């Protein structure tokens, strides 16, 4: 049987992304080239975010009410921040500095580890770039499985210390992801007996994941640029570490784009499309994007967490019944990534099987919100 990382990376074999534009050397750009100017007025309403009447929930994992607070956050926001999560600030500093070292390499060096059009791992622009006429002011590095081959290209002398940091970080965040899964599922009344694929110890040992390092260089014209366009993640959940520069925004119905303020040592956790499916829409995945800054470089590290790649995800039987039919058909993560590569923000509605009786589109399927 092929390894999990091979299976995950197979997602793009039949949906290669050919991005013809050149990778930018951002440090040499003193003005925003037209190819990076997202000039529709609606694209960048960053000011609206300051009027948000309520802010994104912050949950202390040592709080005895954590389960309830997380359930409420998932239902109403699709995102929350966690503190007291058990991952040391030293490890966060180490992963941040590994990310900085990577992105500060010369462009020619980074391109030695470029992601291939049908591959998943490596250096490149956001995979979703192909859906937009304009370029995003960011660069990324995706890790699925071992990064050793790519890291040897980037740092021929000391690649192993960078591999060690990634390995330690992934092991710690994987544990946190399992813990968060049970808090999120527990808040829906789901127990271990309901999720066989969590394994005999309930620790989601066979889970798949990708680590995505994102870099947003300082930008000469941030109001017209876009760091990462609005999207939902194709995951069960995503655990994001952001440095002290803000930029992540989430879309809240009736409010608009709300900035997720960086909290030192905290993680941002967001609901992805597969948890949306698993919860039969009770926990909707959240649309989010990243904007950029005139003077400050921003770095984020996303741990994109999903089920074992061969597991079909469908609405949990406990959450369906006579009045609540299953809204989505079963799909594996690999299949869903292929669907996303084809349909982007309409992927979720493309796996929907049951249309609302009144015929109105479901906003939680993200196809009624203008996102690009
Ligand atoms: C497992 C994955 C999810 C992801 C595609 C990927 O293969 C690795 C990168 C992930 C990411 C990060 C930035 C936003 C996003 C939409 C993208 O283009 O690449 C997500 C993908 C996703 O969640 O669909
Ligand atoms: O940089 C950010 O804050 C967002 C990154 C993100 O959405 C992603 O990697 O999926
Ligand atoms: Fe994301």
UniProtKB/TrEMBL annotation:
Pfam families named in the record: 2OG-FeII_Oxy, DIOX_N
EC numbers, comma separated: 1.14.11.15
Single annotated GO MF: gibberellin 3-beta-dioxygenase activity
InterPro entries membership: DIOX_N, IPNS-like_FE2OG_OXY, IPNS-like_sf, Iron_ascorbate_oxido_reductase, Oxoglu/Fe-dep_dioxygenase_dom
Gene Ontology biological process: gibberellin biosynthetic process
Cofactor(s) required, per the database record: L-ascorbate
Stretches assigned to the Fe2OG dioxygenase domain: 206-307
Keywords: Dioxygenase, Iron, Metal-binding, Oxidoreductase
The protein's annotated pathway: Plant hormone biosynthesis; gibberellin biosynthesis; Hormone biosynthesis
Record family assignment: Belongs to the iron/ascorbate-dependent oxidoreductase family. GA3OX subfamily.
PANTHER family reported in the protein's UniProt record: 2-OXOGLUTARATE (2OG) AND FE(II)-DEPENDENT OXYGENASE SUPERFAMILY PROTEIN-RELATED (PTHR47990)
Protein name: gibberellin 3beta-dioxygenase
Species, as recorded: Morus notabilis
């Amino acid at each position: 049987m092929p390894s999990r990382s091979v299976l995950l990376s197979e997602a793009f074999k039949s949906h290669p992304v050919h991005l013809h534009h050149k990778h930018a050397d951002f440090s040499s750009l003193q003005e925003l080239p037209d190819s990076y100017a997202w000039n529709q007025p609606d694209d960048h309403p960053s000011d609206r975010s300051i009027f948000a009447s309520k802010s994104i929930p912050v949950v202390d994992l040592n709080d005895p009410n954590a389960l309830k607070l997380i359930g409420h956050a998932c239902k109403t926001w699709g995102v929350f921040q966690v503190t007291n999560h058990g991952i040391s600030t030293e490890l966060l500093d180490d992963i941040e500095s590994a990310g900085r070292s990577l992105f500060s390499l010369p462009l020619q060096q980074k391109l030695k580890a470029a992601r291939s059009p049908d591959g998943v791992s490596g250096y490149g622009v956001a995979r979703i770039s192909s859906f937009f006429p304009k370029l995003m002011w960011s660069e990324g590095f995706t890790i699925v499985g071992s990064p050793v081959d790519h890291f040897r290209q980037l740092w021929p002398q000391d690649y192993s210390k960078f591999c060690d940091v990634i390995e330690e970080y992934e092991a710690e965040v994987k544990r946190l992801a399992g813990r968060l899964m049970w808090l999120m599922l527990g808040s829906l009344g789901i127990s271990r007996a309901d999720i066989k694929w969590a394994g005999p110890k309930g620790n989601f040992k066979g889970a798949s994941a990708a680590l995505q390092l994102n870099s947003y260089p300082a930008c000469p014209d941030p109001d017209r640029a876009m760091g990462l366009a609005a999207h939902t993640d194709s995951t069960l959940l995503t655990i994001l570490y952001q440095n002290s520069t803000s930029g992540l925004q989430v879309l809240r119905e009736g409010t608009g784009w709300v900035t997720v303020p960086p909290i030192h040592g905290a993680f941002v956790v967001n609901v992805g499309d597969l948890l949306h499916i698993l919860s039969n829409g009770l926990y909707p995945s959240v649309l989010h994007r990243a904007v950029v800054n005139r003077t400050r470089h921003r770095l984020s590290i996303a741990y994109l967490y999903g089920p074992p790649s061969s597991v079909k995800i469908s609405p949990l039987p406990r959450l369906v019944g006579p009045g609540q039919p299953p809204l989505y058909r079963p799909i594996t993560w690999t299949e869903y990534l292929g669907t996303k590569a084809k349909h982007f923000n309409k992927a979720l509605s493309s796996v929907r099987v049951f249309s609302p009786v009144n015929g109105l589109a479901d906003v939680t399927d993200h196809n009624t919100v203008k996102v690009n």
